[in-house]
Amino acid sequence: MPRTPNSPSPKAGPVTLAMVARRAGVSPQTVSNALNSPDLLRPETLERVRRTIDEMGYRPHRAAQALRTRSSKLIGYGIRPTAPGASAPVMDGFLHALSQTADEAGYRILLFASPPPEGPDALDGYGELLDLHHVDGFVLSGTDRGDQRQAWLQKRGVPFVGFGRMWSGRQIGDWVDVDGASGTDAAVEHLVARGHRRIAFLGWPRGSGVGDDRAEGWQRAMRRHGLPVRGRRAYSVDDIASAQAAAVPLLEAGATAVVAASDMLALGCYHALREREAVPGADVAVVGFDDSPTAALLSPGLSTVAQPLEAVGRECVRLLLARMGEPARAPERVLLEPSLVVRDSTPALHG
């Protein structure tokens, strides 16, 4: 295709703002005003510059735009270390969904090491990212009791959104969460329909907001069906060996089914059953929570509650961008429904 005398050579590299200014016969500042403050220019000048931009195919440099608008197009997300023996497949899936959604909106997720949010140095990373990288906002996870981050960010006018509710009773800012109680309620309903009445719960120690929420759903459904809960609840940290030990009293008490607060705890229950020469599913039904990649690979496949991570990621980005655009808007909270994935670990009860 022939080139006009003033068009740049294909080998000259990308079109620059200065090149557009020369072609349009204006100053570089005028081109900048056409892009960022068009109301400052006379209509005929604005039209000439815009026409030249279109003809030359000029695309503003994103980094330069960020400097002008004081927007880095970066969203900070703190990664906390995983305890030995534990796994974080849910957060891996969430992070992928979050990153993809942010990318589609023209943003990047900036990962950084984050200590526990209740610790003395919990806020150091957040302050550093604000000072050095000028991040536009933060996505917070692990929003348990004692979390200092929300109040600290709100006081400084920094936009944020939480994946998870604040469990201290005082709700601050926007959040997206999954209704864990609804998930374990559905698990009990499924087991009752399969003929189970002695349904135990294997959860995390009391005081965990997420864990207490999932325990509440189990307890609510049990009471709705008039089923006893006393002596049918055990506690464990989220690792296989601890869960295996915690499941033993539940099995000894005659539970025919166990609802676990995570797939990791459910796997510990599998181990406890096999240690007793019992078969998961065939002898005792087991339901997990999270639908981790391991759940489908176990034998038998683990029935579990799946979290809508793609929807969580989309909603987190949506709420954060809305907060950036309108800082004074009323807080928005989104509670998403999980879904039960039925596999071979919950057959109908016989006998």
From TrEMBL:
Q: Which UniProt keyword terms apply here?
A: DNA-binding, Transcription, Transcription regulation
Single annotated GO MF:
transcription cis-regulatory region binding
Q: Which InterPro entries match?
A: HTH_LacI (IPR000843), LacI/GalR-like_sensor (IPR046335), Lambda_DNA-bd_dom_sf (IPR010982), Peripla_BP_I (IPR028082)
Matching SMART domains: HTH_LACI (SM00354)
Q: Which SUPFAM superfamilies match?
A: lambda repressor-like DNA-binding domains (SSF47413), Periplasmic binding protein-like I (SSF53822)
> Does the keyword Transcription belong to this entry?
yes
Domain HTH lacI-type stretches: 15-69
Q: In its keyword annotation, does this UniProt entry include Transcription? A: yes
Among the Pfam families in the record, one is Peripla_BP_3
Alphabetized Gene3D superfamilies for the sequence: 3.40.50.2300, lambda repressor-like DNA-binding domains
The protein's name is LacI family transcriptional regulator
